Amino acid sequence: MLVMREWNSSVIERSGREAGKSGNLGNQGFTETVDMTQGEDIGAGACQVQCAGPGCRCILSVPRGVLNFQCPQCKLPQALPPLLHPRGVDSSKLQLPCANCRCILNVPPSLRRFVCPQCRVELAVDPQKLAAYRSSLAHLNLLSGQTPGLLDGTAVGDALDPASAWSRLHVKEEVNEVALEVEQEEDEGGTAGETFTDYRPSKLSIGPLHPDPIVETSSLSAVQPPEPIYALKIAPEIEQSGTLSCLQLETIVYASQRHMYRLADQSRAGFFLGDGAGVGKGRTIAGLVWENWQQGRRKALWLSVGSDLKFDARRDLDDVGAACVEVHALNKLPYGKLDSKQIGVREGVLFLTYSSLIASSEKGKSRLQQLVTWCGSNFEGLLVFDECHKAKNLIPEAGGQATRTGEAVLELQTRLPDARVVYCSATGASEPRNMGYMARLGLWGPGTDFSHFQAFLVALEKRGVGALELVAMDMKARGMYLCRTLSFKSAEFAIDEVPLEPNMKKMYFTATQFWNELRTELMVALEAVQDRRPNQTQLWRLYWANHQRFFRHICMSAKVPAAVRLAKQALSEGKCVVIGLQSTGEARTEEAVNRYGVELDDFVSGPRELLLKLVEDHYPLPPEPKTLQDDEIVKGESRKRANVPARGRPRKTAAPVESDEDGDQDDETESDQESTEIDDDVKFCSVCSIEDATESLVECTLCLRVAHTGCHAPPITEVPVSKRWYCFDCSKEVNEIQQERRMFIADQFQRFEAAKERRAKVMEVIRTLDLPNNPLDDIIDQLGGPDCVAEMTGRRGMLVRAANGKGVIYQARNTKDVTMEMINMHEKQQFMDGKKLVAVISEAASAGVSLQADRRALNQKRRVHITLELPWSADRAIQQFGRTHRSNQASAPQYRLLITNLGGERRFASIVAKRLETLGALTQGDRRAGAGQSLSAYNYDSGYGKKALATVYKSVLEQVEPPVPPPTKNGETEKDFYLFARAALLCVGIIRDAQAGQFNPGSKASSKSMGRISEADLHDVGRFLNRVLGLEPGFQNRLFEFFVSVFDDLIQGARKDGQFDSGILDIRASSIELQEEPKPVHRDPMSGALTTLFVLKVDKGLTYEDASQLLDQSSREDDKSDNGFYQSKREWQGRTHCLLAIEKSGPVSRSFRIFRPASGEAAREMSLTELRTKYSKVPSLAQAKEGWLKDYMLSADQCMHGTKCKVGSICTVGRRLQQMNILGGLILPVWGAVEKALSKQARTSHRKLRVVRLETTNDSKRIVGLHIPNPAVSTVLSGLNGTQNKPATSEVLALEYHPPS
C-alpha cells in the first residue's frame, strides 16, 4: 500500500484493546504478488508509485490491472492505493492512513477498531482527529490547486487514467508538512511582552508630575488621544497651587472637551474615566466640579457607593480650592422640593448613594423625581457616576432580571439629556454586558453600526477578546476614555497555597461524611412525609446553597492559621497588616446570640450555626395532628349524613312546576309550600309508622331516625333530654369510628414525634461536630483583640473575650463617643494614626477607603495585604487591592493571596480569574493587565472548561474514551477510578438515578445502572467546582486533577488547530521597520481620529551565529542532552528543513523551545516524542550550519511552499523577509467592512481577524491594530472606500465651543 505523509496527528491510533474485539477490513490481504522493476515503464497504461518500505522510497512502475506487487529492492509486499484502482475509490468508506505503517486503508464509517492487514497493528479511529484530518486534507488540496474532495470519492471520477491519478497523488506527496507546522505557529503569534509602559500626558504640558509612578497598558499607549482644544479656566490657579497633577488636569481637559459635543439623539456626549484604584479619581472629580463652577454651572450631582465617602468628597473639594462649594448629603434631606425655603438647597454638590437613587418615601415620593425637579429641564451641570460599576446588570444574562439601580441610572440620564455625564470606575466595564448603562458614550444607538446595546454586545462577544481590547483603544482615540493605573512594579504579589493541617483534614473528612449522611436522612424524611410532602425543589436548593456556604466557611477557616502566622511575621518585621475578606458571619452570630444569650462559652462556629438552622427550619416533618374529641368525630359524621331521610312516610318537598300560565304556576307553588310546612311539624315513628302523640319519640343524633321508646329494641326506659342518643346500629358504628380515629391520630402523633426525635438527633450530632469558629472573630482574637485590630466591616456587633478570659461576650462595635454611622471612619483613623497596626476590611468597606502608607499619615509602615477570602468577582477584588495601593504612598504593599490545596476551592479563584481576564481586556485595554493576572491559571469557567467538564462526565460514565488517562494510584485501574468517581458524583448530586449495586467492585454495570447527568449539569463548571468541595480532600484533588488534564489537552489542541482566541498577538522579529509612510484610510468626523494603514518590512529570521550562541548557553556537561540542531525526516522538493531545539526547564514532562532559521522562536513548544518522531538530530555542527544557512538564504524571497505555491509571491508562510500590513488607529467603525472583506479570502488563515501588537526596531514606535494579510489588502481597502466619507459614530453635530484663535 502507498505510504502517505504523516500530518499533524494520526487519525488512526494504536489500540490497547484485544485483537478479538477488532473489526476486519475485508479484502486487504495479498493474494498474488508481482515483482516490479524499479523506475521502468513496462507497458501501456502503467503508473508509477513510490515504495512504501521504510527508508526505501524508490519509484516503481505498476502495470494496469496489477493491484498487489513486491518491491524488488526491499522485498516488501504491498498493494496499489485505492485511489489508483480501476474501479476508483469506494465512496461509502473512509480512506485513512495507518498510524504505524502509514498505508491507506478503506475503513467503513461505523468501524472504530480493527487490525491493519499489512503491519497487523491494532488500530482505533479517533472521531475528533478524523475531523481535523479531513480539514487538513482540504487545506492541502487548496494549496495544490485541487478540489476539496480528493480522497472522498468525488474527485476521482476517472481513475482509469493512471497518469492523471498519479499526478494528483504526486502533488499531495510533495506538500510540505513543515510549512503547515510553521503556519500554525505563526497563527498562534508571539509570546506576551511587557504589559505596562510608563505614562505621561502626550499632548498637554500643564500641571506638576504625579506623585507616584503611573503606567498605561502598552496597547493603549499605542493610541494617541485627539488634539486638546478646550481652554481650562482653572489652569492658572491650579498650576500655582499644584493641587492637581498633570494627568488629573489632562482628564479634566478631555472630559470638558467631550462634553462640548452632542450625539445623534441630541443628548450630550459623556466621558468614561477608568483610572485604576488609588490614582486619584476623587480629586479629579473635584477638579471637574470646580471647573464647571467657574463656568457658571453651580449645580452638580455626585453619586457614589457609600454615604461615608461624602467626607472624602468634601476633603477633595477643599484640596482643589473649592471650599465655597457646599456638599449636601441627600440621605439627610427630607422628601420635598430641595430649593424650597424649608430645605434651602439652591446650589452646590448634591451627594447621594445608588441606594438613595432608588429609594422612595412612604407616601410614594421618589428620590429620582426629587433630583430631576431640583436640576430642572435645562440642567447642564455635572452628573458624576462615581464607582459606576454599582449600576451593572442593566442587561442581565439569560434568565436574570435587570437591577433597579441600573434602570434608575439609565432613566436619570434620559431625563437629563443636557447633563455633563462622567462615568468613573476602575472596574466599570469588567464585562461588555456591564456597559449597558453607558448610553452617553455613543458606541451604539442612532447613527452607529449598532442600533441598540444588544447588537453591540453580540458583535463584541462574537469577535472575541481581541475586539474587547480594541474598544478601549477606540474610546481613547476618540477622546472619551482615559485609563491609567499606579505602577505595580514595586508591589509584590504571591499566591500562597495553604495545605490543610492534620486536624483540619480530619475535620474536613468528617464534614463530608456528615453532609452525605444528612442528604440520605433528608431523602428518608421526605419519603416518610408521604402525600403531604413539602416542596422538594426548594428543599434541595437550600441544601446545596448551604452546602456551598458551609465548605466555603471551612476553606476560609483552614487559612486562618496561615493568615495569623503571616500577620505576626509582618508585625515583627516592622510592617502593618491589612486582611481582606468578603463575609463577616454576622447573621450566624446574631442567631446564636438570640438562641443562647449574649454570654457564650466560646466564639460562634459559623458552619455549625448554619447546619443547625438548615435542619431546624427545613427538616421535612409530617403535619402535626390535632386531638379530636368524640363529639367532634360524631359531628363530622353527622354532617356527612345530614341529608339522609328518616324511615317512614316520605316527606313532601316543594318543587317548581312548569306551566305556560303564570297564574297556575303561582297557585300550585303556594299549595305545595303550605303542605310542606304542615308535614314538617309532624314526626312519625320509623318502626311502626304511627303518629302517636301520647308516647314519647326519640331521634338518633347520627342517622336522624325517629322511634317510639317502646318500639325500640330493647325498649328505652329513660328518655334522654340533653344528651346525644344513638340508635343501636349507629351506636355500634360510632364506637368503631371513634376507635379507628383514635388509632389514626395516635399513629400520626407517633410519626410526628419520631420525625421530631430524628431531627433532634441530627441536631445533637451537629452540636458534637468539631467545627471551626467564625474566622473574623478568631483572627481578631488571635491578633490581640479589638484594642489591636481595626475592623472596617458592615456588622453592628461582635464577640469579644471576657476580661477574666472565660467565655465571650456579645457587644456593639460602637461606643458612646462614636456613632454606628461613623465607626468605620473612626477605626480607619486609628489604623492610619498607628494606634492599631492590623486592619480587617470586608466588602462593606472595600469601596473608596484609603489604607495605603500615605505620606500625610502617621502610620507610614509598609502594608502587607493578606486576602483571606477570594472575592466573588474581579470588581470586588480590584476594590480590595486598591485599598492599600494608592497615590502619595511611602511604599507599595505586599499582596499575599491565600488558597487552600483543595481543588474545589478554585471555584472562587476561577470566577475572579474570569472577570480579571475580561476586565483587563476592556477596562485597561489589555487582558493581561488585570490587577490579579497571576490568577489566570485558575480560569476554568470558560468555553473550554465547559467542554472539558462534559468530557470528564462522559468518561466517568464510560460513554467516551478520555483524551488523557485519569490519575490512578496504588495499582488502581482506570475502571476503579471511574467507579469511585461515579460514587462521589452520586454523593454530591451530580449523577442521578443510579442503581446502588453498580458501585460494588467487580460488578458489570450497564449504561442504565450508572445513572445519568442532566444536560444542565453537563456543562456547569461552577456547580462542579462547588459540589466537589463536599468530597474528601484526597479524591477531590484527584478528580479536579483529571478535569484540569482534560482542560489543558483541549487548550493545547485548540492552539494547534489555530482555534484558540488569545487576544492581542505580539509580533517578534529581529527587524521591524516602516516600509512607507502611514496611509490614512478613514477619519472620525467629530474627534478627527484616523484609521491608518501601516506597511512594514519585517525580518523574522535567526542567524546561525545567534542560534549557536543560544545552544552554547543551554549546553549541559553531560552528553545525554537532547538540545541541538535537528533536520526533518521528511523530504520536500529534495531537501529537508532545520531547527534548533532547547529543552525548557521546569515541568517533569520534557518540552522544547523551537527556533527556526526563517521565523526565529516558535510560539508553541514541542514535546520530546513529537520532536523525535518528526525530526532527527544532526550529527555534526558543520552539517547543521550548512542546512541552517541554506534555509536562511532561501527563506529571504520565497515561502515554505516553494516555487509551486499556488498563492504566489504574496504568501508569507515561513518567509523570513515579508511585508506586513497593520490597520491601526480607530478600528471599531471600520471593523464590519474589514470583516466582510476578509471573509472573501480563499485561505482559511487569511479569513481570521487577528489583533496584533508590535514595536518598530529603528524608532521604537508602538503599533496595535488588525493584521491584514497581503492577499487581502486590496479587497479591504476597496471595502473601506464606502465608509471613508461616512461618520463612524453618532456624534454628528457641530461644536458648541469654539476655542480662541
Automatic annotation (TrEMBL):
Residues 627-640 have a biased composition (Basic and acidic residues). Residues 682-733 form the PHD-type domain. PROSITE patterns: ZF_PHD_2. InterPro entries: P-loop_NTPase (IPR027417), SBNO_a/b_dom (IPR057332), SBNO_Helicase_C_dom (IPR026937), SNO (IPR026741), SNO_AAA (IPR039187), Znf_FYVE_PHD (IPR011011), Znf_PHD (IPR001965), Znf_PHD-finger (IPR019787). GO terms for molecular function: zinc ion binding. Residues 621-678 are annotated as: Disordered. The keyword Nuclease does not apply. Residues 658-678 have a biased composition (Acidic residues). Keywords: Metal-binding, Transcription, Transcription regulation, Zinc, Zinc-finger. The keyword Zinc-finger applies. Belongs to the SBNO family. This is PHD-type domain-containing protein. It comes from Riccia fluitans. The lineage of its organism: Eukaryota, Viridiplantae, Streptophyta, Embryophyta, Marchantiophyta.
